[in-house]
Amino acid sequence: MDKLKPKKGRRVPWIIYGTIPMTLGFIGLWWVPFNTRELVFLYGFIMLFFFDTGFTITMTAWSALYTEMYEDEKERATVVAIKDTVAFLSSMIGVIIPSMIAAALGSWAMAGLILGITIPITMYLSLLGTKEREEFQIDKPLPIFKAFIASVSNKPFIIGSITYAMIDFCFGFTMMILPLYAKFILHIEEGMEGFAMIGVALGIICAVPLWWKIYSKKGPKFGLTLSMIVFCIGMVPLFLAEDFVCLTVIGLIPGFGISGVLMTEPVMSAAIDYDEIKTGKRREATYGGIGSFIARLSMILSAIALIIVQLSSGFNPELETQTSEALTGLRFSMSIVPAIGLLIAIIIFKYYPLNLRKFTEQQEKLKKLHQARLDKLKK
Length: 379
Description:
Blueprint: H1 12-30, H2 37-69, H3 73-105, H4 108-126, H5 144-152, H6 155-184, H7 198-218, H8 220-235, H9 244-250, H10 252-261, H11 265-279, H12 284-313, H13 324-349, H14 356-378
Helix pairs in contact: 1-2, 1-4, 2-12, 3-4, 3-7, 6-11, 6-12, 6-13, 7-8, 7-10, 8-10, 8-13, 11-14, 12-13
């Protein structure tokens, strides 16, 4: 993406065409025409390949546009606050609605089809607000080997990516545990599991203005560090939740932290800006692709953590009645495991080098560099 210079831009064509396999792969994961284990495995493997390939292409281009279109930190904080609020609300819909549709229609395939149709609609609508900047398309790209070395030696990017992967692990693992936690601990009816996160959702929405001010005034390092601390502390009391009301009240605290943690884009954007000052080139897609790969490794961590908890606690999802050890394992999984992941993320992110002073100095250099680009373009 960073190398090619098509007439329609470096990002938009990839979003248009990458959305197609992402949509087909997503729908295919739910619409399974086979019954035998071998064919289901092979079919699932192929559909995952289509979905993840399309997802990586589309979201790499889409994410690159954020850093490219918005330069000022206050502007970035404002945009990401709005974007992540909408993203979280859509995620809640993704948690709540599919199980309700599946329960009503008696078919997860129909739920997957209905939700899958929304993918191209929303992705293509997002292009209405897209504007690629011409001054970033005049660079001669770095050779691929040199580009890779420059990327993996970018300390802000590597620290930010590993931190983001740990955060993604916390989200992914929690969402894997949530249906089981809702069923066996909270005794919520099937199809209504998503409502267990209402308290978290309220905390997230209420805290958005607060985190917008913190990020815009204190910079990305302070904002993400503080939000991870709040998120980490807030997860621990979930161990004690006994019913829906209790979980809703307790969930407000991690919700406040999650609201700030969702704003990861300013951290990664600052790392990309750091690279531009060193190399003199804009390479959002390069970093987006490598970052996506690192983040997807969190899925492996989530699966390993789930297996360890199941083996150590004796939890069996096929049983309607669980042992006390298994129930304790579920509570531990919903609270302590994500908290440990966040604690590791906080320790790693401590070494992120762009504090407020360095970040401010970097942005001043960046403004001069971009002005030089505009002057060159006018000539």
